[in-house]
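Could you join me in thinking about how sequence relates to backbone shape in a protein? To get us started, please write out a protein record for me. Would you write everything just below, so we can both look at the same thing?
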Amino acid sequence: MDKKRIIGIILGVALILAVGLKFYLANKEESKEEVKTNERPSTVSSKEFKKQYEVLNGTKNSNDQDYLEVSIAENNPVTIKSDIEILDILKNGTGVIYFGFNSCPWCRSMVETLLEAVDENNITNLYYVDIKDIRSSYEVKNKKLTQTKEGTESYYKILEYLNEYLEDYKITSDKKDYDTKEKRLYAPTVVALKEGKIVGFHEGTVDSQEDPYLGLNETEKEELKAIFNETFKEIKNNTCEKERGC
């Protein structure tokens, strides 16, 4: 084979290899950047939390009211806990606990703002407890208060932990209040914990919100975020990262 032809083939192969190597290194650096800027991977809990809340988008409740549409990131920071599991967190954990349920209109109106506040304060642990089916319930029949469902054993223990922050559970019928002799864990409730000590507590959304099915306006969102910032101030992570800044 002609020597010039051989040299040409070698140079051609070398050029192809050089281009391929450059492409590989560029993609590798891009992948590193994606990992670096992606705040957290999705988990089984975060995917399930997203599914639970978004499944009601475009649907109505039993009163023919439209559920507020919400959008939850797949890589959200939520870890789902049962009422039993959350007891250990309440005893000695650090982080934020969100008590709520997906069909609660107040919960749907605040959940996106909660996730934003958790992210902005660099909170690494956000625990979610669905309280819809664990609470007790009462009704008034013939002017007599009757318990229609007993709460779970763990629910009553949660009430003990949060006792000083919770309101008395009263049922109003015909303009008369009936005292259940219990406290009530309303949805949504957000609790900040530091080594098992409650350092922040917020129930509901903001006082100015009248209709949860309409969601929060921008002013109310900012007001609620400010409340969460105050709630989280003792557990927020102020650590700065070299690559991403503060």
